[in-house]
Amino acid sequence: MMLQQMTSFLLNTALGILTFLLVLRFLMQWTRTAFQNPLGQMTVALTDFMVKPARRVIKPVKQWDMATLLLAWLAQLLLVALLASLAGAHIAPVWWAWQAILGVLGQVVDVFFYAILLMAILSWVNPYSPIFGVLNQLSAPLLTPLRRALPAIQGFDFSALVALVLLQMVSHIILPSLQLGVL
């Protein structure tokens, strides 16, 4: 039992980090965030071994890097399949595919959450940090519409706080209910 838990933990950690990096790369490309920064360079260095060969086969659709997105889904699919077989569960592969989609969506939420959280912290501590611009550009698809809807109050921008609350709602309420809905 303990060996199964340790294996499950290691699989979740390794494939979760890989999926996170692939989703981060996908979102950085989608938001046209520059990769000439430590975060971008690390992401490329850790994912190029998979992405470059996949791009030869899978072409982008407009600004969407479908190869990177498919690799993130495949990493989650592998994780779900390994965890199901480790637990001895006999579940249909269609369920695995759905869980993998939800896993990728969860990682998208996590990337946006951490980007906005780090950006908010850096805005108070060190707004001139080289990573601040990267985080700002990465989180712009969520924060820009919120900033239009929520004007600053006494000079304070609450869009990051609202975005973090909404992302937590998606992460803790919507995605788990979608997982349970299929069961």
Provide a brief overview of the structure.
The protein has one domain. 81% of the residues lie in helices and 0% in strands. The protein is mainly alpha-helical and 183 residues long.
Structure report:
- The chain has 183 residues and is mainly alpha-helical.
- It has one domain.
- The longest helix is centred in the middle third of the chain and has 33 residues.
- The protein is globular and about 55 Å long.
- It starts with a helix and ends with a helix.
- 26% of the residues are buried.
Question: How many alpha or pi helices?
Answer: 6
Count of spatially separate domains: 1
Overall 3D shape: globular
- The CA-CA distance between the termini, in Å, is 24 Å
**Poorly predicted sequence stretches spanning 5 or more consecutive residues:** none
Radius of gyration: 18 Å
Q: Tell me the β content.
A: under 5%
Question: What are the key terms here?
Answer:
81% helix; 183 residues; mainly alpha
Present the secondary structure layout.
Layout: H1 2-30, H2 38-57, H3 66-87, H4 93-125, H5 130-149, H6 159-182
